[in-house]
Design goal:
heterotrimer, A mainly alpha, B mainly alpha, C mainly alpha, A: mainly alpha, Helix Hairpins, 78% helix, C: mainly alpha, 2 domains, 6 helices, globular
Chain lengths: 100, 665, 167
């Protein structure tokens, strides 16, 4: 039997590590990987709660999240590739087209 | 009755050839469109003609729309009718006859031009102009009121200008075009004044209404005379009569088909047509009618004398045209409007035939127009010779050919009207016409060959596409006269009876014997003219002509110099106009500009005063708003760095903030 | 026993995740990401979420990680720029997630402290399938449409734009 606090600790740690990656890294690929980590952390928490509450809802939510993660990765890479063709860079220091 | 389709087809042709043809169409497409539209127009005319002939209506009318909306006009005699001018067309016997001539001769000339203009680089432009001319001429003919007629009147003037100056890279052609246009302006001014006068006194420009009002005695006789003379001034410009004839000989600079169509068959007869159309006014005035008759008679003789000495084949024909139109005016002036219009029709056939045949000669001689360097062409281009001879016999008034009937009818009418001076001038003119026409024939086709070696080598008969229209015209030159076979020769003068609804009834009270005697006289004169020409130019090979020229040097110089009318016009009218222009220019610079400038200075002072308020108050408010926006946006845009991690950081901080708020509540 | 398995895999996932975020070479990051993902699937198994664990392996390890690898190969990250960022801002960046996590943990814990003790048996696959095909059938179908849209969309976005100029 795994206490809920343990599950929370693990999930939040994974989420936090991912968030640190998103905030601190400047490589676009690594940032996308970090978002995968964050989603994994959330999935762990969802599965844990489902397990605890004897409900399939947690697993189903996690399933949808995985599906969304796949979509996000595919579209994200597509955008990245087409952006790279134009600018030839992934370094976020050089990507500031949105600058006001 | 869809007679309004008649001018529509040439208009479509203009639009196609003028807008797209010049750049995109092949020559074959261009002339297919042009000739096709002319043919369609001709068929519609013929159909409309038969519908009119078969109906008991005097005329058909068609109103497209209101051109100038109703305005209240203050009439000279009091009364304030509301006047609207409409874009209206009408189709009566006179218009039917005229449209048939315009579209029929026009069609033949379109076809002829395929051959004549084949090597010209501006092929599409030529056909577009030709179609535009046909359109304008048809508007002139079909116009139901003077305003619409004026559109056509100006339109044909414009086309005449464009086509005379068709080879505009030649200075003489460009100058001739300008001369034709400016001379016509003088006449057109008369036309506008006449229209305005009628508008002022009758409150309408509709021709049927004007005729009705004149017959109803609503118009003062002096006013009628003034209006008629002003309109006749327009006619002298368009129809090249004294005093505005000088442009027509120069107009021969244009391509020969143009000379045939515009400067022989159709446009120059517009004046005749207009007078016939307004015949009620002219008859009512009486004085105006006499002026028309005398002008015609003098022009007929005067132009014929200049025809004696010209050596350019087309110029001889040009003077002949002026002279023949003089005949038409004699007919009109004698009150025999149908006779004048009859001569218009026969003249359209034989004169366009002569012009086109002359074009064929010029074509054969690679552009040579001087008769002194022709001669003996009878055997070299026999087909052209034959049709030319038919035309010459017709214009000379040899019995059986169309010119004989129409000319005799005019002379008989002049005699019957009791105006023997006019009749005598006309008879003299007939003899002179026969003389100079056969001088032309003998110098060109008979006698020794006087060609340049190079030109003689290239002499060739024209292609079938040029000869076929010539043969058709020759056929009509012979037969058209029988449409107006006079009663004395066993005919019923069908032509005059057809025109009766439009031109009124003209009764001639001449004994048959007198009429026959008049015919014999004119035939005798014509034959002696031909005989004299034969004697001088064939028998003695031109020697007597040179002798006469030597004997009467002064007179010869005068005629050769075209009576120095051009020089007179240049010296007096043109120079005077220019001097007046300079004077007016000085007046303009000194006084008008002074007034304008001081007005401007006043406005400037006012506007500087208004600028002060503008900059300080209005601009201040506007700029203030803008400046506030600018300040804020400078601050706000710093937030938008464009770096993704900054945005991510902002999201994270935002989540923390929201969670803190939720948890603390 | 379960707790030991849970923390074994959990520790592997956390350590791999830290390496993913900190390693300079993205190729290595991808490898550690696959470790981390597989470890998380182990965590799922320890939570008796068998189906989720299987999906995690199939989709993440089999799909996403391979995708990352390909992308890195395609876009040739040879000349990796050294990331220049001073220490203090980095510390600050770690601080933010820590604060966030603390808050989330507090919120979740406060609201779910009363959750009943877990069961030894997990949810059966059958139950999951029933639920997915009854209550969640609409989102399920929408998800399939979304995946199709992603398929088409990413192909369109990523393909080479050859300007169709026949002239």
């Amino acid at each position: 039997m795994i206490p809920i606090s343990h599950i929370l600790a693990l999930g939040l740690t994974l989420f936090g590590i991912g968030l640190v990656g998103v905030l601190s890294r400047k490589n676009l690929v690594v940032i996308l990987m970090s978002t995968e980590l964050m989603l994994n952390g959330v999935n762990v928490i969802l599965a844990g709660y489902g397990h605890h509450m004897k409900s399939p809802n947690g697993a189903i939510f996690a399933l949808f999240i995985i599906m969304v993660a796949v979509s996000e990765a595919a579209v994200g890479f597509a955008l990245m590739l087409s952006y790279f063709r134009q600018k030839a860079t992934y370094n976020l220091d050089e990507i500031n087209d949105l600058k006001g | 009755m869809h007679f309004y389709l008649i001018p529509l087809f040439p208009l479509i042709g203009v639009l196609l050839n003028g807008l797209a043809g010049i750049r995109y169409f092949s020559n074959r497409t261009v002339h297919s469109i042009a000739v096709g539209s002319a043919a369609m127009s001709f068929l519609t005319s013929a159909w409309s003609f038969f519908v009119l002939a078969g109906s008991d209506q005097a005329s058909f009318s068609f109103t497209l729309c209101t051109w100038m909306p109703e305005v209240v006009v203050n009439l000279a005699g009091g009364g304030r009718p509301a006047l609207a001018i409409e874009l209206a067309l009408s189709f009566d016997a006179l218009a039917a006859m005229m449209t048939l001539v315009v579209t029929g001769v026009g069609l033949l000339i379109h076809i002829y031009s395929i051959g004549y203009m084949a090597h010209d680089k501006s092929y599409a432009r030529f056909f577009a102009y030709l179609n535009l001319f046909t359109f304008a001429m048809l508007v002139l003919v079909l116009g139901a009121n003077l305003a619409v007629m004026f559109i056509g009147w100006e339109g044909v003037g414009l086309c005449s200008y464009l086509l005379i100056g068709f080879w505009f890279d030649k200075d003489s052609a460009a100058d001739a075009g300008k001369k034709a246009f400016i001379t016509n302006r003088v006449g057109d001014f008369g036309f506008i004044l006449g229209t305005g006068l009628l508008l002022y006194f009758l409150g309408t420009v509709d021709m049927a209404t004007i005729s009705g009002a004149v017959e109803g005695g609503l118009l003062d006789r002096d006013v009628a005379t003034a209006a008629a003379l002003l309109l006749f001034l327009g006619a002298t410009g368009k129809s090249a009569q004294i005093p505005l004839y000088t442009w027509l000989p120069d107009a021969m600079e244009g391509p020969t088909p143009v000379s045939a169509l515009i400067h022989a068959a159709t446009m120059v007869t517009a004046g005749v047509y207009m007078v016939a159309r307004m015949h009620v006014l002219f008859t009512f005035s009486g004085t105006a009618l006499a002026v028309v008759a005398f002008t015609g008679a003098f022009t007929a003789v005067y132009a014929a004398t200049m025809g004696f000495v010209q050596n350019d084949i087309k110029r001889v024909l040009a003077y002949s045209t002026i002279s023949q139109i003089g005949y038409m005016f004699i007919g009109l002036g004698a009150g025999a409007y149908a006779a004048g219009v009859f001569h218009l029709m026969t003249h359209a056939f034989f004169k366009s035939l002569l012009f086109l045949a002359a074009g064929s000669v010029i074509h054969a001689l690679s552009g040579e127009q001087d008769m002194r360097r022709m001669g003996g062409l009878r055997t070299r281009i026999p087909a052209t010779y034959r049709v030319f001879l038919v035309g010459a016999l017709a214009i000379a008034g040899i019995p059986g050919l169309s010119g004989f009937f129409s000319k005799d009818e005019i002379l008989a009418a002049a005699f019957a009207s009791g105006n023997y001076t006019v009749w005598a001038l006309g008879l003299a003119g007939a003899g002179m016409t026969a003389f100079y026409m056969f001088r032309l024939v003998f110098m060109t086709f008979h006698g020794k060959e006087r060609l340049d070696g190079e030109t003689a080598h290239h002499v060739h008969e024209s292609p079938g596409v040029m000869l076929t229209p010539l043969r058709i015209l020759a056929f009509f030159s012979v037969t058209a006269g029988f449409a107006g076979l006079p009663a004395v020769l066993g005919g019923g003068n069908w032509f005059a009876r057809f025109l009766e609804p439009a031109t009124g009834i003209h009764e001639m009270h001449l004994p048959h014997a007198t009429e026959l005697a008049l015919m014999a006289a004119s035939v005798g004169v014509a034959l002696s003219g031909i005989g004299l020409a034969w004697f001088i130019y064939v028998k003695r090979e031109g020697a007597p002509a040179a002798a006469i020229a030597r004997r009467m040097r002064l007179l010869y110089a005068l005629v050769c110099g075209k009576y120095f009318v051009d020089e007179f016009y240049n010296g007096v009218v043109v120079a005077g106009t220019m001097r007046l222009g300079t004077l007016l220019g000085r007046f303009d610079l000194g006084i008008i500009d002074g007034i304008v400038n001081s007005a401007a200075r006043l406005v400037r002072a006012l506007s500087s005063a208004s600028i002060v308020t503008d900059t300080n108050v209005v601009d201040g408010a506007v700029n203030g708003v803008a400046r506030v926006h600018e300040r804020f946006s400078v601050i706000l845009r710093r937030v938008q760095t464009g770096y993704i991690y900054n945005y991510a950081l902002a999201i994270a901080l935002g989540v923390i903030l929201i969670l803190t708020l939720i948890l603390s509540s | 026993m379960n707790l030991i398995v849970f923390w074994f895999f959990g520790a592997v996932a956390v350590v791999s995740a830290i390496i993913v975020v900190t390693h300079r070479n993205p190729m290595h990051s991808v490898l550690y990401l696959s470790f981390s993902v597989l470890a998380v699937s182990g965590v799922f198994f320890s939570l008796q979420a068998d189906f989720l664990g299987a999906i995690q392996i199939i989709v993440y390890a089999g799909g996403i990680v391979v995708l990352y690898t390909f992308v890195i190969i395609i876009i040739n990250l040879n000349e990796l720029q050294r990331e220049k960022r001073r220490f203090v801002p980095r510390l600050f960046l770690v601080l933010i997630p820590v604060v966030l996590m603390a808050e989330v943990a507090y919120a979740l814990y406060r609201n779910t402290a009363s959750v009943a003790g877990g069961a030894e048996e997990g949810i059966t696959m059958e139950e999951l399938a029933h639920r997915l095909m009854s209550s969640y059938v609409v989102p399920f179908e929408i998800a399939s449409v979304l995946l199709l849209a992603v398929l088409v969309g990413s192909i369109i976005i990523a393909r080479k734009r050859v300007i169709d100029d026949s002239n």
